[in-house]
Amino acid sequence: MSLQFCTVPLFGGALSVKMPSTFVDASNFRPVPDNQEVYLDADGLVSIIVEITERVTQVATNEEAMQYHLEDYVDGSSDTLRVYQRQQVTMAKLPANTPAQAVIATTHSPSASANGAHDFVGIVMLMIRLAAQESDIIVTINVPHFNAREVNMGRGRPGPMMEEAGEIRDAVVASFEVRDLGLFGQ
After folding, report:
1. Averaged pLDDT, 158-172
2. What's the predicted TM-score (pTM) here?
3. Which residues pair with 127 in a beta bridge?
């Protein structure tokens, strides 16, 4: 399973990142908030959201900031949120001291869990903290699964779709670049 990637300008070219070549810009056919870029897999259900947020300051650590963003993203579904992996990452094209974290998690619909269904959304999230710009950049890869009996994240069986999401995360870590700080009002 080897995805093909291409460099995509984000936010008018102020940022750039490598995305799978089969993904399309959602703003071409639906409204997207100004602080987001959303890409959808033309061949499937996976989406990638790149969001610029105000830097979270009400927490003490980068790990707590990541947890804040993850819980904010699942918006009240934290009772069905399961985190399987947390790690610090080094962004290849940003200064080495740029704090960045990655998580792999799932969220299950309460109704699917009650009915014994194996439906869930895999979430691969990356947080890049830009202190001087007072911003956190959140990259979220959403991987919906329906009746995914072969997947067992807790037992190290992520399945092919989550493996591809990991490949996308690795491409973002290797390629994410800030080209114009003017995006942040500087």
Report:
1. 84
2. 0.89
3. 101, 138
